[in-house]
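Review the following:
>
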Amino acid sequence: MPSFRQQPPQGPPPGAPYYDDQPRRDRDHEPEPPARKSRKKVWISAGLVLALLAGGAGWAYFKTDWFDGNGETVSYGKPPAGGKGDGSGAASGGAAKPSGDPDLSLPTGPAAEFKQTTKLDDGTRISKTRLKGAKSGFEGDVWVWTPKEYDDPKYAKSGFPVMIALPGGNGYPTNYWADRSLGLQKAISEGAAKGTSLPFILVMPVLNPDAKYYYDGSDIPNQPKMGTWMAEDVPELARANFRTWKSRDGWAFMGNSSGAFVGLKQLMQHPDKFRAVIANGGETAPDSPLWKGFKAEMDANDPGKLAQKLIATKGSPELYVNFQYGTKEGGRDRLEKFQRENGKGPIKIDLYEIKGGDHNGWDYVRGMKEQGLQAISKIMKGPKADGG
């Protein structure tokens, strides 16, 4: 099976960090420690700060832009007094009463503690919390972002769709989608303003429990239960703190490389929970070395095998897969093969080619702006003004 080779990203913003999306199998053994890999990022960031401070206006820009308010508590919808929702939709602080849509899910609590990590130009903020998964037992960081529509009074009684965004590379200890330089949040905001994208809530968890191996977003025997973390605990965090939709039409994945595999696998494994995935330059079969000796369990986490079961099952819910790949990267044959073999019955698969695109987040965001966000938005449930 061919594998992707990371090339230097083309056209990132000046001073933006470099993101390593090398294929999983190239990094399963003895990956470079995260501290060493991030040295370039540290020096670039330091240089940017010095440049901003050099002039009289530099400090004012620095103070009011990316880092203004970092570390401060970010408040979202509060649960009812007592810490847990009662299903009534009532919330502390005088929140709006629920609409008549039975699909609406208001915050159930308990409320998580979110701290700002980045502020965007439109005033929206990316924040982080620490989640101890009730189902998986795994504890890790999760970043979230809500579009400005979420705080618009006309949507106060409405649910919002959730996109779980997964990084490539190790995906630990950070999730690079929480860095504003890639432009994912901006792409969603601009698309929502143009009517080409739904205003998704972004939930951005760590992908792996450590930087030593890839865990395929699965419950590998004798390892942290990363499949349960992704399918149960991370969505539960969103339901506890945000206005969402109960139905699968309000839930999707998006991921790069190894994260694309995890999103694809989760969709095929849990068609009752998720509606769609945008899979950017990803693998289509499990390949963690930790599966050794557990072939049956590995097969149960193979997207192709899962897809074939869905195709053979009458009444299976319809799923949508949006594959993206850049013309400067390899792997198109693998995606075409998956599409040819599994794009039938309840599974709809598009394959979008990003002209001049390479295996990096900036080019994948460009592809999403060109096609992916619009395609996925057409089949998912968006917010309704005044509760609909």
Observations:
- Residues 296 and 302 are 10 Å apart (CA to CA).
- Residues 361-377 form the longest helix (17 residues).
- The longest strand covers residues 125-132.
